[in-house]
Amino acid sequence: MSARSTRRPQMTLDDFEALERGAPETVTLEFIAGKLEVKPVPDGDHGAIFMWLLRQCMQQRPELDLHPEQGLVVEHYRAGRARPDGVLAPVAHFAGQGEWADPTGALMVVEVTSHDADTDRHDRWEKRDGYAAVDIPVYLLIDRQSCTVAVHSDPSGGSYRESPSFPYGETVKIPDPVGITLRTEALKDYAA
Question: How far is it, in rounded angstroms, from Cα 166 to Cα 175?
Fold first, then answer.
């Protein structure tokens, strides 16, 4: 058992949800690996990257929606709460599920890194592990610091077995069940 899984959480899940409900609209809170996380407010380049990806998904898979900031119940024993930058799922999949949806049926989660000190731990490790733990088929990480696109896929036993990374400019094939191809040349315009 890893050190992360044996640590005591900072608070209970009920306490987190009460705190999150009372947070101002300008603050996005997550509960990852038993810790309260404050998600940075996205900048203009972050938003432009998300819109680029949204257009790619809509053009290639119009029967799917890329939901921005959809809250998901994640991690072992459903003890975490995350708001990925995007969740790819069938049209209207999350209708009626409320603020923290069951991740079952989500095909892909997306994170675009922010320029903050916690990005390495938060997006590259803890969230990745949380998404794998609930068997989300694909975790797409658009990493603005390293100018790469990482495609984590084939979850098994709480981790992703495949994790190739591609520099901006390469063509990136997202495996099934997503089945789209990203031409990432445009991402160079938003390099850090």
Answer: 14
